[in-house]
Design brief:
InterPro entries: CarboxyPept-like_regulatory, OMP_b-brl_3
Protein name: TonB-dependent receptor
Helix content: under 10%
Number of helices: 6
Largest sheet: 26 strands, antiparallel, barrel
Shape: globular
Keywords: Receptor, Signal
Length: 962
């Protein structure tokens, strides 16, 4: 650990070592200036500034920042031509003589010029991307979509952004939150934002690393940020009403209706959403507190996701969905800012699934299942910021989620042994019916207080308190019949299982920063947290409710953590370095309350050095790199610690392990970004690597004979399995590591009038496993590449075509290699007199290399419509879904001990008639209505667009009308 710490400190010291001084350094200087819009009297953000030597054809480019300022550093002494262009404003050209270290052009005023706007559009000088600090900014006007397109369709065309199933990935990282004009939108529900906000009102999209609440509060980056997107609406809007109303009806009584409306006035924003359909459309994400949505009702053989997951995109099967949501943000008086959202949804789902699994231990498993479920979700998120005075500020973030789920499942499965040339031998049949009723909630709150000491900038004290409580109750009745062959025997199980769990967490943090110079701050912090979990499992035999004490258990665990340590922050014009090094002392306790005859207590202490470090290097205005290092611990869940057998599926028996230790993980992330404003290119690369000590994985024993005895560490028999049955238990293992890297490059293709985005990615993971008491390492490697072509020559003809292919290799006791390729495309053409033609489709292919497996299907949808109403805001259309009737839902998974293919039911071919209306009422500061003329890249009045969208608080006070 000492050598690792010294190595890290040396790594971060390298950028600050003095550079060798050349014997003959040429004289150089800089050109600076500030640009303002004469009409709006506001800074011009994103203006393109071109600088070229008077006697040369070489050109340099930069853009103006949020204050309208720009800089050309390190220019050799001499004469330069400086040209400034911006959509709708007069261009400015001047000759500048650089004969001193700094040449300031002062404030440059740009005036309206509609003719100049037309010339900029024709010449194609519209800026695609630029970089402000570590924020990558996309100009929405440089990525054309039809006027009725959603934000999702716009993001698909932007380099470095991948949209799939309602989730968004940017610069190789998952986007956790979407903001609109700097204000949060529906909490962490990214899906709702991208599917319900119209692209037509967007001015630009900003991709950045959002600081944690405490870091944003204190202004000191603590390295705990996450990827976020800020959607900036069109400049100069004072009032706006925009939304979408949609309804369709198809054969076999299929329907889909939805409505969204956004009301903006000054700093107030109110959004209302509603939807109902029975065609499996979900324009929102769902909190899966109970861990039941992704597993088809908790079927034992198939496994599923743990609790507190966040469902994004569509569920398996066919769903009937109803949803309502409201989001609100406003500035109340000058000191109080309020944001909040509420969403409700209910989903009725039917899933029919076929699972085919090939074990590396020469066994085959086939399962057919049907689940009928009804799920309800309520979610509330809030944010309150109160500026007490210039030196004191409060921030409070409450949240509440509530979920209920009722599920009925029926499963049938069979296990067979592959006996070489002799063929397959059937080992067992299994049939089960189960019904489950679940309910749970999660409530939490985080309170931050910040005090700035007068007299010196950067001297800040931050105090944070957080806490929460959760509950998860699941009552399950299950009947199963298992028939084993050779010899022939039958076992029957009829149980009532009551699984009730609850828990709470409390914590606090105190941090202090002390400036020692203009560029250096010393940091100190102390954290304390306590997490408590309690799980009570009771099993009864039916009929008669006979209590089964051998299958019942009550267990609680507590995890107390203290963390203390110093840090420092160094920042300059081109460099920022933040390092926090902490000593962590943790205590994990466990107490088995039932059965009393085997009462046991557990307590273990753990010492760790945990660290977070971030280095940001800004080589120039369009070229930067960011390095992050961090470590931390993750304690096992109470379910993993609970030492009780789960025999609800006799073929897949599991048990907890009270001796589990916390996982200690270390991770590194490097990201490089380069944009060329003049050429419109965007280049990015990222790499992530991580290792884990005491990683938690399952030790699996699969019976290859009848009477197979599973034994514990002391040699006592835990359970006896017949051939084809399986037992699993979580254990700690060392040896886990992973590395993932990729790059993307986006550029305009002039002769096609389109944008082309390329991406490559590779990953490798080594995971230690135990299978039938033999330890091994399962390695998986994946190599993927993608290409996206998006039109950019007209908002009347919009298309996007993407193809992504991957080669996957898994090595365990057996090798498995397979190829998968997915091509998608969509096109919409608004033709003569508002006649619309549109189509979208996808082609998917899975092909095994080692097992000669092939699965492929083609989905094609098409429609024809007619634009209606003033400004073609409405449309009526006829649409045909799955024209070729080939739609499938297919997934291949490779684990440490098997290959699995899962096929689930989907909607087939159907025809529908739909009517849509897009509401757009947009008003500027002067009360004049905005419009979006054909061919323009932004909204404007009967003159050019004004300055940037205001983000400051409104003048005056008073309670808002909403």
């Amino acid at each position: 650990m000492k050598h690792t710490t010294l190595l890290l400190l040396l790594l971060f010291a390298l950028p600050f070592l003095p550079e060798p001084v050349s014997a003959a350094t040429p004289k150089s200087g800089s050109i600076t200036g500030k640009i303002i819009d004469q009409t709006a009297q506001e800074p011009v953000i994103g203006a393109v500034i071109e600088c070229s030597p008077a006697d040369s054809t070489k050109k340099l480019y930069t853009t103006s920042d949020k204050d309208g300022a720009f800089t050309f550093p390190k220019l050799a002494y001499g004469s330069y031509d400086v040209t400034i262009t911006y959509l709708g404003l007069t261009s400015h050209t001047s000759q500048v003589e650089v004969a001193k270290p700094k040449t300031d052009l002062g404030t440059i005023t740009m005036t309206p010029d509609i003719q100049q706007m037309d010339e900029i559009v024709v010449k194609g000088l519209t800026m695609r991307t630029t970089q402000k600090g570590d924020t990558l900014v996309y100009n929405a006007g440089a990525f054309k979509v039809t006027p009725d397109a959603s934000t999702e369709k716009l993001l698909e065309k932007m380099p470095g952004i991948k949209v799939e199933g309602g989730s968004v990935e940017a610069q190789g990282e998952q986007v956790k939150k979407v903001l609109v004009d700097g204000k949060e939108f529906f909490g962490e529900d990214v899906t709702t934002a991208i599917k319900n906000l119209p692209a037509e009102v967007i001015d630009r999209v900003e991709v950045f690393d959002k600081l944690s609440d405490q870091a944003a509060f204190s202004g000191v980056d603590d390295g705990q940020g996450y990827k976020a997107i800020n959607i900036v609406t069109q400049r100069g809007l004072n009032q706006a009403k925009f939304g979408r109303f949609y309804g369709s009806y198809g054969f076999d009584e299929l329907y889909n209706v939805s409505a969204s409306i956004n009301l903006l006035k000054d700093n107030r924003r109110l959004t209302l959403l509603g939807m109902a359909n029975n065609v499996n459309q979900q324009n929102f994400a769902t909190d899966d507190l109970l861990g039941v949505l992704s597993s088809g009702g908790g079927r034992g053989g198939r496994g599923g996701r743990g609790g507190n997951a966040f469902m994004i995109g569509n569920q398996s099967g066919v769903s009937t969905v109803k949803m309502f949501g409201v989001d609100y943000a406003n500035q109340w008086w000058d000191k109080l800012k309020v944001q909040g959202s509420y969403s409700f949804n209910t989903t009725k789902n039917t899933t029919e699934a076929l699972t085919q699994r090939e074990y590396f231990s020469a066994q085959l498993y086939d399962e057919t299942g049907r689940d009928n479920s009804r799920n309800f979700n309520h979610r509330i998120n809030g944010l309150v910021e109160y500026k007490i005075n210039d030196n004191n500020q409060l921030m409070f973030r409450p949240s509440l989620s509530f979920q209920t789920n009722d599920t009925y499942s029926a499963d049938t499965s069979a296990t067979a042994a592959t006996d070489g040339d002799a063929g397959n031998t059937l080992l067992n049949f299994f049939k089960s019916n189960s019904a489950a009723n679940s309910a749970g909630y999660n409530i939490s709150g985080d309170l931050n207080f910040m005090h700035k000491f007068g007299g010196r900038d950067g001297r800040v004290l931050t105090v944070s308190i957080n806490g929460g409580a959760s509950k998860n109750d699941r009552d399950n009745t299950k009947y199963s019949l298992t028939r084993y062959l050779n010899p022939d025997s039958t076992s029957q199980l009829n149980q009532l299982i009551l699984n009730h769990s609850k828990g709470y967490r409390v914590g606090g943090r105190v941090s202090y920063s002390e400036p020692v110079s203009e560029r250096v701050q010393l940091l100190a912090n102390y954290d304390i947290s306590y997490n408590y979990s309690d799980r009570d499992k009771r099993s009864y035999e039916l009929p008669g409710d006979l209590f089964l004490d051998s299958l019942s258990n009550t267990y609680n665990s507590g995890y107390l953590t203290h963390r203390v340590g110093p840090g420092f922050r160094l920042h300059s014009d081109k460099t920022m370095l933040v390092v926090n090094l902490n000593y962590q002392y943790a205590t994990l306790t466990g107490d088995q309350q039932f059965p009393t005859v085997s009462r046991s207590k557990m307590a273990a202490n753990f010492d760790n050095i945990v660290y977070r470090a971030m280095l940001h290097l800004k080589f120039n205005r369009s070229n930067s790199m960011r390095v992050r290092l961090f470590s931390g611990t993750d304690n096992p869940s109470v379910t993993q610690l609970q030492n009780v057998l789960d025999v609800s599926n006799p073929l897949f028996i599991s048990q907890g392990n009270p001796n589990l230790k916390p996982v200690y993980a270390q991770r590194m992330n490097i990201r490089y970004t380069r944009v060329n404003v003049g050429k419109g290119t965007t280049l990015g690369a990222q790499m992530t690597a991580g290792i884990q000590n005491n990683s938690i994985t399952n030790s699996v024993e699969r019976a290859d004979r009848n009477g197979y005895e599973v034994k514990d560490e002391t040699g006592n028999t835990v359970v006896v399995l017949d051939r084809g049955a399986q037992y699993s238990r979580p254990v700690n293992l060392n040896g886990y590591w992973t590395i993932d890297g990729g790059a993307y490059y986006g550029f305009p293709v002039g002769w096609l009038g389109s944008n082309l985005n390329l991406d490559l990615r590779a990953s490798y993971t080594a995971m230690p496993t135990i299978y039938n008491l033999v330890r091994s390492t399962t390695t998986t490697a994946s190599y993927t590449g993608g290409i996206t072509l998006g039109s950019n020559f007209s908002d009347q003809l919009d298309f996007t075509f993407t193809y992504r292919a991957g080669y996957n290799i898994a090595h365990s006791t057996n090798n498995n290699e397979y190829f998968n390729g997915v091509g998608t495309g969509r096109i919409k053409w608004i033709t003569w007199k508002g006649i619309t033609l549109e189509a979208n489709g996808s082609y998917s292919k899975y092909r095994g290399v080692t097992d000669k497996f092939t699965e492929e299907f083609f989905l094609l949808n098409a429609g024809i419509g007619k634009k209606l109403f003033k400004n073609q805001r409405g449309e009526i259309s006829v649409q045909v879904y799955d024209i070729l009737n080939q739609n499938k839902s297919f997934v291949r998974n490779v684990s440490e001990n098997y290959i699995q293919n899962v096929t689930t039911n989907v909607l087939g071919r159907y025809v529908s008639i739909s009517l849509v209306y897009n509401l757009r009422t947009l008003t500027g500061k002067d009360g004049k209505a905005y419009s979006r003329p054909e061919g323009r890249d932004d909204f404007r009045r009967d003159g050019p667009p004004p300055g940037d969208h205001p983000t400051g608080p409104p003048r005056g006070g008073g309670m808002p009308p909403f």
